[in-house]
């Protein structure tokens, strides 16, 4: 067996299941699950119809590179969304459809890392578990950047010593952040591109929450957008990951894409050809329909805004609670208890499930930056989110 498997940590939801084991919540309270970032809004009918219409495509082996029409549609979306002339996005060499960002985030690391004793993958802390697991299985060392309240929950890249950047082969950034919802600005992207050029590493930007934002006039900045505006029109050392899971409420479609540096994607395509993971043709046609429509995405954002407003209005006088600029998460600083005790007792007393923040992070520089926080995913219907907020309010008042 791969010896690196022994180095993997249990997945956060495995830990959560163990935390809840042997606890019987009150039977008079219906369960409300806000721990998993799985959208519960309906997948738009036109996406479902496109999938069904093209089911005869199941008779075809899909190509790893995907349909040219899909790649062209994605190029058009990138152009509209990130203010990049479509003529400067090559659908043939700079875009690759993938089966959701989770699979792509993991496999890209396996393709680009040169395994050696010094290889480092830098990532935010807390983080999406795939970043760490992918680094470990590729034979690299994860290097964690604490995202703490004092830094507005953004990584402090200035704190990284040159000796780490010299070993860095890949940097993960996540904006909007999971679990914090914080957004990186153009200046941060520019700083990282300068570092990437100086120390010769790749920037992998996980952007699957960019389409869920609070202010309709201020969509989050994308890495390719910053690269192009800075004169890096070939997106050198930059790759982004996008998905329909959150944007279009289609997590089961397993559809996303990787875009950016053509040289990197050329080698990644070679890896994926052997990896054996092309997107089924019907899914590609459903994706074509999804990337061409923005109205359902605007409606989706409005639903989340309503839930954020209602949830925060109920709790704002009982705890410190922030409205994030993007994503569908509340990164709640818990009062009185540890994050694990808070989550466990909330489930035991109120039948509401949230995720302890320490399950999403590692101890680094003497602290676990996720400790004393819980991640609350506002994915349930509005009425359930309101009910959950009321139960959490009662629980907080009972322990403070």
Description:
The chain has 14 helices and 12 strands. The mean pLDDT is 97. It has a 7-stranded mixed sheet, with helices on both faces. The protein folds into 2 domains: 3-42 and 296-399, Aspartate Aminotransferase, domain 1, CATH 3.90.1150; 60-293, Aspartate Aminotransferase, domain 2 (3-Layer(aba) Sandwich), CATH 3.40.640. It is α/β, with parallel strands linked by helices and 400 residues long. Helix 7 (186-199) crosses helix 8 (223-229).
Given as residue ranges, the uncertain stretches (5+ residues, pLDDT < 50) are none
In total, how many beta strands?
Answer: 12
CATH class category name of the largest domain: Alpha Beta
Query: What about the largest sheet?
Result: 7 strands, mixed
Shape: globular
Specify the CATH homologous superfamily of the largest domain: Type I PLP-dependent aspartate aminotransferase-like (Major domain)
What is the radius of gyration computed over CA atoms, rounded to a whole number of angstroms? 21 Å
CATH architecture of the largest domain: 3-Layer(aba) Sandwich
Number of helices: 14
Q: What's the end-to-end separation, in Å?
A: 49 Å
Count of discrete domains: 2
**Beta-strand residue fraction:** 5-15%
What is the succession of H and E elements? HEHHEHEHEHEHEHEHEHHHEHEEEH
Helix proportion: 40-55%
The largest beta-sheet arranges its strands as 2-8-7-6-5-3-4
Q: What do the pLDDT scores average to?
A: 97
CATH fold label of the largest domain: Aspartate Aminotransferase, domain 2
The helix-and-strand class reads alpha/beta
